[in-house]
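Researcher: Let's try something more involved. This one mixes different molecule types, so please make sure each is placed in the same coordinate frame as the others.
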Amino acid sequence: MTPSNQPYNDLKSKLLADFQAAEERMNGASKSALHQLRRDALSQFDRLGFPTIKNEEWKYTNVGSLIKEVFEFNAPAQVTAEDLASLETARLEGNVLYFVNGRYQPQLSQIVSPAEQMTISTFSEAVQNRPEVIGQYFAQYADYHENAFTALNTAFADEGVVIHVPARKTVEAPTILRFISDGRQMNVASQPRNLFIVEANADIKVAESFRTLGDQASFTNVVTEIVVCEDARMEYYKIQNESDMAYHIGTTQVYQKDRSHFYSATVTLDGGFIRNNLNIALDGQHCESHMYGLYFPNGRQHIDNHTLVDHRKPNAYSNELYKGILEDRATGVFNGKIFVRQEAQKTNAYQSCKNVVLSNDATMNTKPQLEIFADDVKCSHGTTTGKLNEEAVFYLRSRGIPKDEAQMLLMYAFAEDVIRQIKIDALREQIERRIQAKLAR
Amino acid sequence: MLTISNLQASIGEKEILKGINLTVNAGEVHAIMGPNGSGKSTLASVLAGREDYEVTGGTVQFDGKDLLDMAPEERAAEGIFLAFQYPVEIPGVSTTNFLKTAMNEIRKYRGLDPLDAVQFLKLMKEKMKLVNIDQSLLSRSLNEGFSGGEKKRNEIFQMAMLEPRLAILDETDSGLDIDALRIVAEGVNQLRSPERATIVVTHYQRLLDYIVPDYVHVLYKGRIVKSGPKELAFELEEKGYDWIKAEVETA
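Model: All components are placed in one shared frame. Result:
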């Protein structure tokens, strides 16, 4: 047995050893089906290894510097309400669950929705109390055979949030999950694992927020699996506002059944190195999927959004709009893949990615990919990358609006298409304030 | 009010204005006419502060201040308004919102309190009637998907709201049908007063039937080659520009 504080020459061997050490402490529990699944995921991680830029999916996102860092995966979580005040989070009337360095913080959290509207618990509680739910859904959607980070998260999955909305229930209050990396003392890492099941004709709004404290490096490797059943409706927001020292790799895996509607907005305000995967399988007829994204990198921030829309059944609709504003030496990536399988006739799938690059040193890489195997479909895609419209700036200035303000007005108008898709008012207003503050600086 | 002396301007290597002299006093309407490519729109743009042009010589005084030293927004706040030949479409910004921002920035520059929502709406209602523009148009994104006539009317509406001391209309008549032309001219005429002046840049005399100028200047190859009373416009309409060109070439 290797003590966990021994230095390893790389992150991968450290993680493999950590897993083994944890397993040895488990005694009988290591024979459980859940653990067998984790072990399988670990072997996939071992086989895959961290991706290099030779991997087409990671061509513009080099995780080299991430895997050179040393992180504490079990950092203490000692955060008070006063510490959180510095984050100026929006006050939300709803269910608010706090996690610090991956650990649930009940003293900071509140659950207001009645139990008959939904079951909400931490992942570890669900493993104890609702093993049938975990057994049925966990790791059934987010494929850990192709993506090393998903495999890693699956192997170590022990905390996060499990939400189950019974059929025909409308959860009125929004739910916001706040994941905070406390990097005030040391480099920290966490691997949240979430599972949301929205049963037939139910309705829920969930937001995931990612924040950091302190200026040490943090690494968040999050996986969220979402199942939206027949006629159900879900709004899902992912809001990232992390430090320049933050590494974030996330996968949201959505599975939709007949006539379900899924709305999502991914807003990245700040963060050093970010990769978001949003994968949606439309495995039902007459489904709808709406995906919005907004990213604002400056300095040397890197933000990569990969989306995959998999149309498996006929008569479904998907629409995607991602927008970016890039400053300084920032880099951005948008990779949008749309599959339309042979069976998925009468699919309507639209995709658009628009970028404003404010500096000559900023770079945006866009790659739309359409793979269409059905012959009666409507699909379109388009990407644009350009500077702020100088003629428009002059027009506004000629009416008395100072240059900085004119540019801000235009950038805000550009971002507005996405911002207004956030239907949780307090959250949207908070994001508006942050965007205005970032634009003004 | 406005004194232009020996103004020279180029775009890239190309010299476009080659020494313009023009004085505009309060209360006057000046028409600047001339064949295509003579520099009419360049003059309008340089006065408004478009940065594509480089001023290579001369001076422009506006109420005794050095206009060329001011940013476009300062010129606007000092009371200069350019009605664009091609108004820009700006998605996501409504005319109402934009105008409120503009008005309050100008008021701030002048040391005035901002207009509140009620005062602004009242003023807007009043000016909307003037140019016969519809509320629904003003709630939409600025100029986005507007017809040519709607864009020009929106320019005049903005002018009516901002009440500039010097309005410069850059080919505001181009592409307008006769009804739109009348509405635009009506808007301009209502603003005429002893304190204000207008420069109408146009290729054709047609607009001048409705906005009657005090002076007409002919711009050719970057210089004002002929000035005269409003009758000069009729002469140009009748005889075209060739006789002017001939006069210049033989001189």
